[in-house]
Amino acid sequence: MSLTDFCPPQHQALLTQRWEDWCAAAGAEKVAEKGTDSVAEVEALLDEHKSRALARVFVGSDFFVQQCTRHTEWLAHFLRDEDCGLVAPDLAEIETEEQLEKALRDLRNRVNAEVIYRDFAGQWDIPTACARLTELAEVCIQAALDWHREKMVARHGEPRSRDGVIQPMVVLGMGKLGARELNLSSDIDLIFAYPEPGQSDGEKPLENQAWFQRLGQRLIKSLDAVTADGFVFRVDMRLRPYGDSGPLVSHYAALEDYYQTQGREWERYAMIKARPVAMSGEGAAEAAEELVELLRPFTYRRYIDFSVIDALREMKTLIQRQVRARGLIDNIKLGRGGIREVEFIAQAFQLIRGGREPDLRVRNILKVLPLLEEGGHLPEGAAAELRDAYLLLRRVEHGLQAEKDHQTQTLPPEIERREQLAFALGYDRWATLETALVQARAAIEREFDEVIAPPEESSEITDSDQWEFLWAGCERAEDRDNWLEQLHNAGFQPAAKALEALASLHGDRIVAALPAAGRQRLDQTMPLLLAAASEVSESLDPLLALERVLPLLRSILRRSAYLVLINENPPVLAQLLRLCSASPWIADLLARHPILLDEMLDQRRLLQPSTAEDIADDLRQHMLRVDEGDLEAQMEALRHFKQGQSLRIAAQEVTGALPLMKVSDSLTWLAEAILQQSLTLAWQQVVEKHGMPKDASAEDMRFSIVAYGKLGGLELGHGSDLDIVFVHDADSSGYTSGERALDAQSFYTRLAQRLIHILQTRTLSGPLYEVDTRLRPSGNSGLLVTSLSAFEKYQRESAWTWEHQALVRTRPVAGSARLGLAFEDLRSKLLCAARDEQKLRKEVVEMRNKMRAHLDKSNDRQFDLKHGTGGIVDIEFMVQYAALAWAQGAPSIVRYTDNIRILESLSEAGLMPAHQAAHLIDAYKAYRSEGHRLALQQLPGVVSGDQFEAERKTVETTWQQMLG
């Protein structure tokens, strides 16, 4: 059958002419090269489906025919292969700029031709075609950038910061390139950036600005210049700061200053799709991430930003004026119901809500639309309708651009060309395609007018008014449906549960009994609270936020000054909801101790991590404000301080200001500071009553608190007990200097008892810490305080293997610095003692099996993070075994008390392969991170049985190798 059999009569002449042109070129190539017969090869590949596809593409794209005529072998590849792929040019083989330009243009023309064929043949949908064109752009930009950078470095040296750090260049792709939605004939919108000013280090140095400007200019030329082979991409740099009048390349500080002080709404709109598409130079990946983070606050505001609507209306109005003035009614991108309106719909919601809804911060419009519907921002079914309409318009856009490789979105006026377009896209005639276009554009136009309505069509009732109405009438049964709809639309789901909670508070007797001023303050607070709860960000649940804050609200109703604090400080309310949503532990802490709301007034301080010195100094300053003679007040002050610091650390954890390891550090430092301060108080009281032991002083009490377990290993969590042991090195035969003298042992026992009293007594603010001293020599049957010499004797002669394991994680945390050093020296000697490894292995395994039998909560459905097989305790036991077995030959492995640094030390000492240590560290961090998260959620430390499978297997394998 002939190709013309698959083509309507009105297109057969054009098809015949273009087919003959290709056959002539292929035949001439055969004569010139005496090669294979390309025509025969292609004809042999044709079946009915491929013949129809070939007829469409030859009728629909003159560009395709021209490219296949210049490269006759391409057509057989397109017909034979499902995907011809995309391979970057080999830069090592490219010596001149002309060779680079030809290689890039040949690649571009081949990829574009293939995309046209696959589209018209129905093999690739629009997202696939756009993804391939985007990949092409990324490959070409990166290749040109790498090639030119190498030449620039050879001539001018590496660009460096003033500190000597090599400076990379990052290319931001904007618009359709950034969103991976590139057209057949798109411009590419780029912004060039580098981190810091400085100078290159070559024989002909340049300031970094000039260095990167030259690199940018050469990159643009390689892509944009029109040669005998055409162009790669038209490059548009007008989206950079200050547009055409601004520098071609900017360093990060200049970018940040521009967007903070002069950035406009349309630039925020453009930044939604921005992403790094190419980069070169040492540290480029990190620099690209830094740039993305730098730009995010400009693009996405932390609040719900309805001001965007007005800005978008103005932009769209300007475009519509251009459409009318330039007669662009048939423009399927800029005209009414066009591609741009779909983009406006999606990006309006992204700009308005992206600051509070991170899920919306995606660049690709087809990914945004279903998220908007899921979030209730678009009505049910709208996302699919908009997607289908958008894909049709984009396919027609590709068909228009495929004809001549021109950047056009305007439907041709000639009926003949319209029929050619319809045939190429697989429609029987133009009228069918036109009907589909009219329906698609009408659907887009309707939704656009709903989202970006003119100001005069907007309701005069504000969101604030609506929440006031709801709070005032939440108990009215006749309005129940209205309130449920409002709550549901605001994200309170199930809405009935939220309404029930509100009605319960509104009708509570304690509310009815409030004085007028208190009730007025509550009535001001509740609408603000509801509005803020509906805006909680980062996928948090508005209903959960409301439910967790209401107990706090009830606790402060009679202290309405706190309501004023909330009303007058919107950031406090927003942060309060965010923290309570993230953690019931925080919500419970605030409800029990509303005074902690004061901590939230200074947002900067709340989320600013502290060092150990900061915490200790803050505590000293805090205690100076308390009467030295009032022990009860001092104990309360310690508790208030601990609660405030605990809130800050938890807030820093849930907001990401502190990573897991730093959270444990901060909690450990807090405990150490409180232990030292509590010990000082206890010392003052016992000394006042009994005098001091011989050779002791406030500076050197000859007494030390030794931490075991989590405190010893710097791994304290929220609500952890303190495992501590007390040691002294005073003369046991001596007595104290007071009138009611005691022997040294009795004195230090009293001191330890007084310390435990200060820590554990339940005042109005609760205990400071629960204390466990059972790890002392002989446990509960042993002395509360042990002399250092007696401690050594016990450890050498009587201690069980598990007690030596526990010693791995011990360190002095308060008391005599001198005695602390002596204890550390003793610990090192004890751990470095020679041991029978076989016996040690047997006893460690037996203890682990015994613990697992009694404590492991794992089963077929859940995994106990701590005690389960392959869990935290397995890692700890392996670390302890390694320390006890190998420290004699490598004392450095017991220098530290925390598991992670011990594992690192084992690797550094060559006792454990680096990859094995790294895997154990990763597993340990993952388990502890999840454990911290569960603790903040007040949940037990068990997870689904299918979680952490890889980590568990790694730990189990290592266990078998070491202890199996």
Automatic annotation (TrEMBL):
Region of interest called Adenylyl removase, as start-end residue ranges on this chain: 1-456
Cofactor: Mg(2+)
Catalysed reaction, written as an equation: [glutamine synthetase]-L-tyrosine + ATP = [glutamine synthetase]-O(4)-(5'-adenylyl)-L-tyrosine + diphosphate; [glutamine synthetase]-O(4)-(5'-adenylyl)-L-tyrosine + phosphate = [glutamine synthetase]-L-tyrosine + ADP
Name of this chain's protein: Bifunctional glutamine synthetase adenylyltransferase/adenylyl-removing enzyme
EC number: 2.7.7.89, 2.7.7.42
Residue intervals of the Glutamate-ammonia ligase adenylyltransferase repeated domain: 54-282, 574-824
GO terms assigned for molecular function: [glutamate-ammonia-ligase] adenylyltransferase activity; [glutamine synthetase]-adenylyl-L-tyrosine phosphorylase activity; ligase activity
Superkingdom as given in the UniProt entry: Bacteria
Signal sequence region: none
Its job: Involved in the regulation of glutamine synthetase GlnA, a key enzyme in the process to assimilate ammonia. When cellular nitrogen levels are high, the C-terminal adenylyl transferase (AT) inactivates GlnA by covalent transfer of an adenylyl group from ATP to specific tyrosine residue of GlnA, thus reducing its activity. Conversely, when nitrogen levels are low, the N-terminal adenylyl removase (AR) activates GlnA by removing the adenylyl group by phosphorolysis, increasing its activity.
Region feature Adenylyl transferase, mapped onto this chain: 462-964
Family: Belongs to the GlnE family.
UniProt keyword list: ATP-binding, Ligase, Magnesium, Multifunctional enzyme, Nucleotide-binding, Nucleotidyltransferase, Transferase
Keyword Cell cycle recorded: no
Lineage: Bacteria, Pseudomonadati, Pseudomonadota, Gammaproteobacteria, Cellvibrionales
Domain PII-uridylyltransferase/Glutamine-synthetase adenylyltransferase, residue spans: 313-451, 840-937
